[in-house]
Amino acid sequence: MEIKPYHAEDAKKNQVSRMFNRIAPYYDFLNHLLSLGIDRYWRKKAISMLGKDTYPHILDIATGTADVAITLHKYYPESTITGLDISVEMLAIGREKISKKGLSPLITLLEGDSENIPFPDNHFDAITVAFGVRNFENLDKGLQEMQRVLKAKGKLVVLEFSQPRFFLFRYIFNFYFKYILPLIGRLTSKDPRAYQYLYESVQAFPSGEKFLDALGKNGFKPIECTPLTLGICSAYLAEK
After folding, report:
1. Most buried of 1, 69, 88, 121 (most Cβ within 10 A)?
2. For the packed helices 12-34 and 88-100, what is the interaxial angle rounded to 10 degrees?
């Protein structure tokens, strides 16, 4: 069953774009508040999985307000970083953050579809995606597009929510995600569906071994899956 942000007939990617455009002004604040700031650690941990190799050109899919792109620059200051996202409002906030940090020459944000990446084959040395693959309308197509634009031996890092392994913690996590987080999100972001969709999409996402299988099926060599914070999210590393 396809999980969409809104109960409407139009395509999922259109709804995802509309949802993020609506919540863009509140997105960073809510991310840090609702995760108690742990989201910053998750992003750094995922990026560190790329190691100390050189990556002249890096693509950040579902870049949003550019938190990952900016963190990538700290790890790889010589790299040219491109962020891609379908939400113009999120990108606008990201560009403002990049400009204030004086990083505009090194980080470029583009409006675009992850299932139709506007770059030629074998273009990027590394690709990152943080909390974005759940929102793909067609997961296989999105993975195939990333594989297409990645150079041979290039690295892919995906950070995504998953299900905690321990029963009690999983129960607490699911209760928070299903009831508390949507309430706070609804009161703060003014979008009654956005954070309910977050819970639903996490439940439906094929995390862990299932996602490693999806990577392998779509042309990647899965290397590792690292659960973070008792499995609230997982970081995946793969190679073309």
Report:
1. 69
2. 40
Domain regions of the chain by residue span: 12-239
- Looking at residue 70, its amino acid is I
Strand partners, 159: 130, 235
Give me the residue label for tokens 């995504």: 160
When the pLDDT of each residue in the chain is averaged and rounded to a whole number, the result is: 93
- Looking at domain 12-239, its CATH superfamily turns out to be Vaccinia Virus protein VP39 (3.40.50.150)
Residue 191: how many CB atoms within 10 A of its CB? 20
DSSP-based three-state secondary structure for 69: helix
Query: φ and ψ at 235, to 5 degrees?
Result: -110, 130
Average pLDDT of the segment spanning 213-225: 97
Q: What is the pTM of this model?
A: 0.95
Name residue 118's amino acid. P
Question: Beta strand 233-239 with 124-130: parallel, antiparallel or unpaired?
Answer: unpaired
Q: Residue 87 — very low, low, confident or very high, per pLDDT cuts 50/70/90? A: very high
